[in-house]
């Protein structure tokens, strides 16, 4: 039983972190381009306009993906409640890998949105 709660907590950490990042980037995003904190890619760091756009877009996507992953995590873990530790562990591991995939998808989505909104020099189209 304790192992199930441990795996549940670990799996829930992914959508919860996405929700927190999404909220933070939408409400309290870094205001100026920096190399330490924020959504930092070459395209996002061209100028302040691309920077702010990227922070907002990444925040929205992160929040929405976190909301989508929360019920998936809960339902997936409820299915294996009471099963053996090996079934719970394997399910939790696969679930965590599955939950991390949208992070790469979000990067692709933000980069695509930046490319549609800005030219190579960071000027709005």
Supply database-style keywords.
125 residues, elongated
Question: Would you give an account of this structure?
Answer:
It is elongated, with a radius of gyration of 18 Å. The longest helix is centred in the last third of the chain and has 33 residues, at 85-117. The chain has one domain (2-117). The protein has 125 residues and is mainly alpha-helical. 73% of the residues lie in helices and 0% in strands.
Mean pLDDT: 94
Spell the H/E element sequence: HHH
Q: What class would the helix/strand composition place it in?
A: mainly alpha
Number of domains: 1
Radius of gyration: 18 Å
Care to count the β-strands? 0
- Helical stretch count? 3
Q: What about the largest sheet?
A: none
* Proportion of strand residues: under 5%
Enumerate the spans where pLDDT stays under 50 for 5 or more consecutive residues: none
What spatial form do the alpha-carbon principal axes imply? elongated
* Overall helicity: over 70%
**Terminal-residue CA separation:** 56 Å
Summarize the structure.
The protein has 125 residues and is an all-alpha fold.
Question: Which secondary structure elements does this structure contain, and how are they paired or packed?
Answer:
Blueprint (H helix, E strand, L loop, with lengths): L1 H26 L20 H32 L5 H33 L8
